[in-house]
Each structure stands twice: as structure tokens, then as C-alpha cells.
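Structural prep section.
Before we set up the soaks we want a predicted structure of the protein with pyridoxal-5'-phosphate in place, mainly to decide which crystallisation condition to try first. Input record follows.
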Amino acid sequence: MNTSQSAAHHAESSQYLAMGVSSGMRTYVTSPPLFFERADGPYYFDVDGNKLLDHTLAWGPLILGSNHPQLNEAVIEALQKSYTLGAQHPGEIALAKRMTEVVPGVEQVIFSNTGTEAIQTTLRLARTQTGRTKFIKFEGHYHGWANNVLLSYHATDEEAGNLEAPNVAPSMGGQPASEYTEAIVLPWNRLDLLEQTFEKHGNEIAAVFTEPLLANSGSIEPKEGFLQGLVDLCKKHGAISVFDEVITGFRLALGGAREFFGVIPDVSVYAKALAGGFSLSAVAARKEFFDVLRDGSTIHAGTYNGNTICLAAGKATLDILSADPDNHSRMHLHGLQLRKTIEEAAQNKGLPLCTSGAGTVFNAHFGTETPPTHYREYAQVDMDTYTKFRAHMLDNGVQLLPDGRWYVGLAHTPTELEIAQEAIHKSFQLL
Ligand SMILES: Cc1ncc(COP(=O)(O)O)c(C=O)c1O
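Run finished without errors. Recording the C-alpha cells verbatim:
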């Protein structure tokens, strides 16, 4: 694939933009990083004139694809009325109400702009409500880039230490230990260890954070009973259970992981697919969770919170997703067909491979026929072969994320399935 114009853009951007890209995660996607002119439906168009079928969905948000007429219309209408008000407007009521209708067990929400912020707000509210400071997170789970939670994300074996009593491993420079002394890290899918930790630290733990499907490390599925067990243990010990649904929200089902897995935590956090590509996040829970805001015990703030344009995008996205009750099953089927194609192509080539995930977000794991059950198993998959496969896919016109993850959205039709299937077959031949 010709990437000469992207390379030239990257050389220039590196002069003015600190990393040449705007998010650290994007440094590792392709070399050179691709620069794009525009996106339309499920396709991206780069500055070299390449048209790429997209299965990155911008790392998750583009559940409707790009340039969706109904979403455009809603945003343009909002734009003509205001940019942002820094004040109240009916759009806030409309989206908050719609969220309570589609997400089981949600009575109220608060809005912010990114997943990182909404996680921090949740932690603050949980601490205020419980009067406790510690929290539990799991290895390989990503809850945003803030110092107090970017811990044991993709730690090496040495950094991570003993599986049953892991170290709390910082992920980057500028992360002093004083900012994460309150974190307890555990391997995921191990209810026994969670129970033991509660027995030891029960009355110190404010909250337990989990991605309900471990999308950030291999799209690992929760073991039968794990999520409900986690919620029950939190209830028993007076801690707040939090599903980080930044990826799973409105994606696994309209009601996200709560609906898909049939488990209701105390709180869910949403972003990404919530507004189809616009910057919006939300904390959602029963009314009581927000008592600490109403009684003034703590605050939730932000200049752009509830801004008119992103709220209009959120309402339109949920309207479009819910307009046809078959939308999610269609997307899921598309994902399953892709998985089947990848698995069959690997089998034909004699390569060990398996897939894991749920419908619209899944991973292909080279080098193993057993799906990982927690981060350290995912860390063992053959990423070198995946990287080669991904490069062949790109040469065949399909762009994928670097970590083995695939996203499927509403803009992927049977035509895109055929294109992707052909690229998969060709790429396996080239391996
Ligand atoms: C599960 C999860 N939580 C939180 C975040 C942080 O969201 P944001 O990048 O909008 O700050 C992400 C981002 O990828 C995520 O995947």
C-alpha cells in the first residue's frame, strides 16, 4: 500500500505535534501512522488515496459508521442553536431519560466528556458515599489514563509478580506511588481471590471496577457467575460495584453488558458508542448513588459537561440504534461470521488460533486454541503473527487495531462482510 503522503504528513506533524500523533496509543498502529482525509460509512480515506474498510471504529465510538445522515442532521440542528451553553437545556433531559429507558436498572445519569473523567467521578462518588478510600481493579483492565487507575494494565511478568497476589504496577513515567496506594490489583475471573480480598480488607474498599467483557486485553469473556458474584460480594461488604461499560455500553446490546449478561451492578460508566463518535461520557446508576451530589458532600463539574452538540449526538445515536430491534443481532451475526472465517482460514493453514469476545467486539488470538481467561493468558498469545496478519489485511484494504481486537458496527453490511472475508483469505495465504 502506498503511504508516501502519510509519511510526509507524519514528518511534518512531528515538527509541531509532540508525538506526531494525538494519543499515545496511536503511535503503534501503523508505520508511518496513517493520515486521513475523511471517513464515510464503514470506510476511511487516507491522504494517499487509499480506501480502507474500517474495523477499528476509531477504537470503538463509530458504532454507526461515519457521515450517518440522521446523526449529521441532529448535530447540525444542535449546532445551529448553540455551540455550548454552560447551562441547562432540554437535550440533557431527552438523553438522560432515554438512557434510563434502555439501560436496565438505571434511574439517573450525569454527563461528562471522556471515559477517563467518568471513571474518576465514579471513584469520587463511591468514596464519598462509603467513607472508604481503597478500590479494586483487575489486571489488564483499562479505566482511562489517570495516575490512580492506569495500573497493571499491560505489565510484564516481572512487574506483575505473583498471580494470586499481584503487584500494583504503574504503567508509565510520572506516576508516583503516592497516587496509587489505595489501589488493590487482582487477576480477573477469580472470584475466590476477590472473596479473600474482601475478607481481608472488607471495610476499607469503596468500589470494585471491572470491564464486564475484558475488551482492552483480548475481549476475554467473564466466567459463568463471575460478574454476579462480584456484584454480590460488593453488596455483602458495602462496596460499590462498577461496570466500566465505556466499550460494552450500547454495543453488546442496547442496554450494554447489563442487558447482555443479565447482571446489574451499582454503577455503569459509558462513553464511546454512547454518542457515535462525539465526545460524551456518563455515569449511570440508581438515584441513591447521586445523593452525595445532591446533599453537597462532593461535586461533579466540567465546562463542557452536557454540551448541546454531544448530547444531541447521543440522543440521535440511541434513536438510530433502537429504531430497528434487529440492529444488534445483525451486528452480532456479522461479528460471528467474521470470527468463523478467521478460524476456518487458520485451520486451513494449519495455524493454531481461537477467537473470543461478544458479537460486535472480539479478538483473534494466534498461537492458541484456548481463549484466555485473564490478562496473563492473553499476554502469551502470538502477537507477532497477528501483527504480520494485520499488515497483510491493511495491504488488502482492511484496517484493524494493533491488539487483535475487531469492532463491528451498523455500517458493516453483507458487502463489507464479503470484502473482509476475501482479505482474510488472502492474508492467511500470505502468512
Ligand atoms: C474500558 C475503558 N474505560 C475507560 C476508557 C477511557 O475512555 P477515554 O479514552 O474516553 O478517556 C477507555 C478508553 O479506551 C476504555 O476502553
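Observations: The chain is about 40% helix and 15% strand.
Flagged for discussion at group meeting.
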